[in-house]
Design brief:
Pfam families: DUF772. By secondary structure, the protein is mainly alpha-helical.
């Protein structure tokens, strides 16, 4: 599954959906055609065990041994590589999906409480970006395009949080999705000198919060792991 996610640039949620939908994936994974698949959180939990148990090299060695036994590798070819880029790439895609959905769902919740105030904060590009749930479309596969999306998400989220800090109604900051956005922001986003949000790619893994994003547009989105 990690290889599939890495090759196709998928988040955990998208990969779990593909397992349910694609016959070729089920065939490779040895699943029955009627198999209902699994929750996306399983992929996060697997990566966590892999990293915490320092098992990345063991898994790589066993994989290479199987490939050699099936003549899929040249004996004199380059067979060994670090698995860190694969795990890191999958983690970053999943994190971008999480933050993008939070930046979309927090304004949705605010729209029911402070619609007039919110309308003054949102630019037209932001409204357009927030029109659809993040998981409804594919995240960019190319790193440059993904970095551009991450920058937009960072700027949108930081703009919203700063605006909330400046207004005098504390109850708006206590809305569940707003609190969750602030929590994840503190864990996963760095600020530059102009206090623009930027996803920090070098951060160590952190445990996912035990919360759900709830809004009228997205009744219950269980957050994917932040790793």
């Amino acid at each position: 599954m990690l290889v599939f996610e890495f090759q196709e640039g998928l988040s955990d949620r998208q990969a779990a959906d593909q397992v349910r939908a694609r016959l070729d994936w089920k065939d490779v994974l040895g699943l029955e055609l009627t198999d209902a698949g699994f929750d996306a959180s399983v992929l996060y939990e697997f990566r966590t065990r892999l990293i915490d148990g320092a098992c990345k090299q063991v898994l790589l060695d066993k994989t290479l041994s199987r490939f050699r036994a099936q003549d899929l590798l040249n004996v004199r070819g380059q067979q060994r590589t670090d698995s860190t880029p694969v795990i890191g790439a999958v983690r970053n895609v999943t994190r971008l999906e999480l933050l993008g959905e939070l930046v979309r769902s927090a304004p949705n919740e605010l729209a029911g409480t402070a619609p007039a105030w919110l309308a003054m904060q949102l630019s037209q590009p932001w409204v357009k970006r927030s029109a659809h749930r993040v998981e409804e479309g594919w995240l960019p596969r190319h790193e440059a395009a993904r970095a551009h999306d991450a920058l937009e998400v960072g700027q949108d989220g930081q703009t919203l949080l700063q605006a909330l800090e400046m207004q005098s109604e504390p109850s708006w900051r206590e809305l569940s999705n707003v609190k969750l956005l602030r929590l994840i922001w503190e864990q996963q986003v760095d600020l530059d000198e102009q206090r623009h949000g930027r996803l920090e790619t070098g951060r160590p893994p952190c445990r996912r919060p035990n919360h759900s994003v709830r809004s009228s547009a997205h009744p219950c989105l269980t957050l994917p792991a932040v790793s």
